[in-house]
Structures are given as structure tokens and as C-alpha cells.
């Protein structure tokens, strides 16, 4: 697995940044950086399973292994989703994707929030994340400020 790191400083309180990260409508806006119709199903609660998907492309299922509201999210990808919404865990793509993790940490300093994103992924997906995260973070910043 390759570790990738991204960050942005947002001139907004941590609770506002958290809300814009996790609310369905604003999530769709910033996650467009990865696919045009990005969305999620599930609850942002520790121990929950979340589906992250684009109905036209499929997606992934992740276990939220650690949630500290307003401060931290750690997700581990455990399955992939087909376009029809069914999950699967077999095949080359699943072998590369399952076990990938995403960690989000929010720190408030002097009225601004530093958002740090750490992704551990198969090297084949590094270019996708490197292409998407800078745009996603700038969009999220715009939603918050």
C-alpha cells in the first residue's frame, strides 16, 4: 500500500468544516472531484458501514472504524459496489481496493481549521487520488468559507 497525504487550511470553525464534509448535499459537491455523481449511504457513526458510490460507476463499502465527531474519521474499505448496488469482494480490482484506508483529521487553530487527509491505497489508484484530492479540498474550502 502506498500512503498519500493531503491537507488544506480553511478559514472556518472545525464544526462547520465537519458538517460540510459529512452532509449529503455538500459531500456531493466536493466529492465530484472523484466522480460526477458521488454520494454516500449510511450514518457517520463509529462501527457503521458506509457506501460511497456514483450510481453510474459503482463504488465502495467502508467500515467506519473510528469516529470522533468534529475531529476524526477513519474508514477501511471492505468491498466494492457494482452499478446495481450489490457488493463484491472477489477479483483483481477488489484485491487491490479492499484494505485501503482513509483518515481525516480536523484541527482548529486560531479560528481556522486544518484538514489532513491520509490515504493508504494500492499504487494503481495513486494518480486518481492525486488528481482528485486537491480539487476536492479546494471545493470543500469554498463551501466552508
- Total number of β-strand segments? 8
Helix/sheet category: alpha+beta
The CATH class is Alpha Beta
What is the helix content?
A: 25-40%
Distance between the termini: 34 Å
Q: Could you outline the blueprint of secondary structure elements for this entry?
A:
Layout: E1 2-10, H1 14-22, H2 24-31, E2 39-41, E3 49-54, E4 58-68, E5 72-81, E6 87-88, H3 92-97, E7 101-109, E8 112-121, H4 126-144
Antiparallel strand pairs: 1-8, 2-3, 3-4, 4-5, 5-6, 5-7, 7-8
Helix pairs in contact: 1-2, 1-4, 2-4
Structural commentary:
The chain has 145 residues and is of the alpha+beta class. The chain has a single domain, classed as Alpha-D-Glucose-1,6-Bisphosphate, Chain A, domain 4. It is 29% helix and 41% strand. Strands 1, 2, 3, 4, 5, 6, 7 and 8 form an eight-stranded antiparallel sheet that branches.
Features:
145 residues; Alpha-D-Glucose-1,6-Bisphosphate, Chain A, domain 4; 8 strands; 29% helix
Amino acid at each position: 500500500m502506498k500512503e498519500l497525504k493531503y491537507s488544506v487550511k480553511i478559514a472556518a470553525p472545525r464544526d462547520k468544516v465537519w458538517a460540510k464534509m459529512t452532509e449529503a448535499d455538500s459531500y456531493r459537491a466536493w466529492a465530484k472531484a472523484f466522480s460526477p455523481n458521488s454520494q454516500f449511504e449510511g450514518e457517520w457513526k463509529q462501527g457503521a458501514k458506509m457506501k460511497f458510490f456514483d450510481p453510474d460507476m459503482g463504488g465502495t463499502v467502508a467500515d467506519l472504524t473510528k469516529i470522533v465527531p468534529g475531529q476524526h474519521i477513519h474508514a477501511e474499505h471492505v468491498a466494492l459496489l457494482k452499478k446495481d448496488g450489490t457488493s463484491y469482494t472477489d477479483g483483481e480490482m477488489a484485491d487491490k481496493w479492499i484494505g485501503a484506508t482513509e483518515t481525516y483529521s480536523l484541527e482548529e487553530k486560531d479560528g481556522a481549521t486544518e484538514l489532513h487527509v491520509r490515504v493508504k491505497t494500492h499504487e494503481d489508484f495513486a494518480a486518481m487520488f492525486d488528481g482528485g484530492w486537491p480539487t476536492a479540498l479546494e471545493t470543500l474550502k469554498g463551501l466552508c468559507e
